[in-house]
Design a protein that fits this description.
The complex is a heterodimer of chains A (about 400) and B (about 280). With about 400 residues, chain A is of the alpha+beta class. In chain A, about 25% of the residues lie in helices and about 30% in strands. Chain B is an all-alpha fold and about 280 residues long. Chain B contains 14 helices and no strands. The chains are: A alpha+beta (about 400), B mainly alpha (about 280).
């Protein structure tokens, strides 16, 4: 936690958010340390926007506390509520929400003027921000005359120009097409990675900056989260189900949603001496039911007993046209349900008896002539079946 | 439409050919034509009856100039009042949830559906010399609203303000609240947000509202004649002057009417181009 010796919170964000909106209940505790970029990753309807609104002060908490940079911003129990205009939180909104009656320069200067800076000085600083975002000559354009990616960069500049204590970015790439997304993701990465001086642009280094500013990125896209964030919090149905570095999440996702995000296979089962009897959520153990020809996975780890989550990395699954010879302990026959090229890998979704995701090289996919419906042999080494105790019911 | 025009160009027909979907079915066309005639006829009638040669003489008479000056002053003042009071009221109605909000909304928009004469009479009962408020007000300050220019302005504002309230409330409801949220996160106070973000963003609707309110005030008759009377040079506005002149000097009445029609028509056409998206 970000507390110093005296117990006072230092510059990060600590949010303990309890909110009820109709049937929906949000109960989330998360913290973002100074200088850290955290991502809040969750499907639509998980409560992401509500969390943004609560932290930004647009929605008062029902319970809990929001602390930022040593200040309490919202604590119903203590009757503390700091309105959004005094929170010093820069927000990059979904769909940007640029002021359409102002040009980009005045959009960026808006916060500076609102905080009492003289207009001429504010415009000079705003121009420096536009320069840093490679938008130097677009200051006179209104938002309508900008491309989606340009608008997004203006929105980022507008939020950063006020030197906030926290940057909140709500689906900053959500409204962009794929090309713009990829380009802007790189741009964002440079601004998020080491504060605002991280950009390759020379102008960025002349800007007043606070590299220690914590940053919280809200997204439903795992690519955004995994590329941009140091730490990812996964939100499902109003609760945080897991938090960790992108790598930790890839290796050990706690829920099938988290596994899905990283393409990782997550198989529930019951372990006994390295043999995992595969169960399905809600199903009885399928052993002896005869429906599955593979009901037991062999794992190298023999230490666990009882309910386990077995994870198999999609790249650890080998596919063959003929029955493979050799040592793999797990070999079975299946069909390809779907084949999806994902850039430098091809993802193959396998059908019964065990639906798994396999990532292979496009070359291998071509060689194997895999199409939906192709009959295949699957092999997985026992050492690639990783086990973790399944704490969930 | 896009499909139709594509098909047209592909089949090599003239580009000017209309897609069939743009042409109205005949009953629609007939009824629409009836509508146009209904509104065009009075204008044509007025133009036909206009004494074009003596027009300027009529318009520059003292009787007309006095009424015109009073009309312009009182309608502009009423429009300013309508904006000053109507916008805050619209903001409250659009943004604040309180018990009785629909009652308040009904009350402040009542003048739109009330016969103006009734409105004027009600003003008189409230603010006249013997009115519930007007009596004590006169005793205390000596101010007498009826039969003065203040009475004209008040009567005009009474009928014009609801137009601003309704238009601006609608615009505020349609405005994405996140613009104001964005301003707040950038450190703008609520008043600054209202002034620098909300009002500019509803600017077009606000402009239309104020101009329509002004036009309504300029043409106001019933409430004015009831509350402020018809005193030449003091409370006689252009519409009242037309009414009087119809009895005494028909040519003058026609001349004034023509000016009012031309003014209103020009205004509506200008508004259409400026603020209402024409397709």
């Amino acid at each position: 936690m970000s507390f110093d010796d005296t117990g006072a919170a230092v510059s990060g964000l600590q949010a303990d958010i309890r909110l009820r909106r109709g049937e929906f209940e949000l109960d989330v505790s998360l913290s973002v340390e100074a200088g850290e970029t955290a991502a809040l990753l969750g499907p639509n309807g998980a409560g992401k926007s509500t969390i943004v609104a609560a932290i930004a002060g647009l929605l008062p908490l029902d319970g809990g506390v929001v602390r930022l940079a040593g200040r309490v911003l919202d604590e119903p129990a203590a009757s503390v509520f700091v309105p959004p205009e005094r929170r010093r939180i820069g927000v990059v909104f979904q769909d940007q929400v640029l002021f359409r009656h102002l040009n980009s320069l005045d959009n960026v200067a808006f916060g500076l003027v609102a905080q009492g800076m003289r207009r001429a000085e504010a415009r000079t600083q705003a121009q420096a921000w536009l320069d840093a975002m490679d938008l130097g000559d677009l200051g006179h354009r209104r938002p309508r005359a900008l491309s989606g990616g340009q608008r997004q960069r203006v929105a980022l500049a507008r939020a950063l120009a006020c030197q906030p204590d926290l940057l909140l970015a709500d689906e900053p790439l959500g409204s962009l097409d794929v090309t713009a997304r990829n380009r802007l993701r790189r741009n964002l990465a440079s601004h998020l990675s080491s504060g605002r001086n991280g950009g390759s642009s020379a102008a960025a280094s002349s800007l007043p900056g606070n590299g220690e500013m914590p940053r919280l990125l809200i997204t439903h896209d795992p690519a955004d989260a995994f590329v941009l964030a140091d730490r990812v919090h996964i939100l499902e149905d109003g609760r945080l189900t897991q938090a960790g570095t992108p790598d930790e999440l890839r290796r050990a996702p706690a829920t099938s949603y988290a596994a899905d995000l990283s393409g990782l296979n997550l198989v529930r089962g019951t372990a006994r001496e390295g043999e995992i009897t595969v169960t399905d959520d809600g199903d009885t153990p399928a052993s002896g039911a005869g429906r599955r020809s593979v009901v037991v996975l062999h794992a190298a780890d023999r230490s666990l007993f009882g309910p386990v989550l077995a994870t198999i990395h999609p790249r650890a699954i080998a596919l063959h046209r003929e029955r493979p010879s050799g040592s793999p302990r797990n070999v079975w026959r299946t069909t390809a349900e779907a084949v999806e090229p994902l850039g430098d890998i091809t993802r193959v979704l396998l059908g019964s008896p065990l639906p798994l995701t396999a990532d292979i090289t496009p070359g291998a996919a071509h060689e194997l002539l895999i199409r939906p419906g192709t009959s295949l042999w699957v092999s997985v080494k026992a050492t690639e079946v990783e086990l973790a105790p399944d704490g969930r019911d | 439409m896009t499909d139709a025009s594509t098909a047209t160009s592909e089949s090599g027909d003239s580009a000017a050919r209309r897609a069939p979907r743009d042409l109205p079915p005949w009953p629609v066309a007939v009824l629409a034509a009836v509508g146009v005639v209904l509104f065009a006829l009075p204008v044509v009638g007025l133009a036909a009856r206009t004494p074009w040669t003596g027009l300027w003489t009529h318009l520059s008479s003292r009787f007309v100039v006095d009424a015109a000056v009073l009309s312009v002053v009182s309608s502009v003042a009423a429009a300013a009042f309508a904006a000053a009071v109507g916008v805050p009221l619209a903001w409250v109605l659009a943004r604040v949830q309180f018990r009785g909000r629909s009652v308040v909304r009904a009350l402040v928009t009542l003048p739109m559906v009330l016969p103006p004469v009734v409105g004027g009479a009600a003003l008189l009962f409230a603010l006249g010399r013997r009115g519930v408020v007007g009596g004590p007000l006169h005793d205390a300050t000596g101010l007498l609203l009826p039969y003065s220019i203040w009475g004209v302005i008040l009567a005009n504002a009474f009928v014009a303000t609801p137009l601003v309230i309704l238009t601006v409330e609608g615009a505020l409801r349609n405005l994405d609240r996140r613009y104001e949220a964005a301003a707040a996160t950038l450190g703008a106070s609520r008043l600054r947000t209202l002034w620098k973000v909300t009002l500019p963003m509803i600017g077009p609707a606000l402009g239309v509202a104020v101009v329509v309110a002004w036009a309504r005030a300029l043409g106001e008759f019933g409430a004015t004649v009831t509350f402020a009377g018809n005193l030449g040079g003091r409370t006689q506005t252009l519409p009242l002057a037309v009414f009087v002149a119809l009895e005494s000097d028909r040519d003058a009445a026609v001349a004034i009417s023509l000016v009012l029609v031309a003014l209103s028509l020009g205004l509506l056409i200008a508004l259409r181009d400026r603020w209402w998206p024409s397709r």
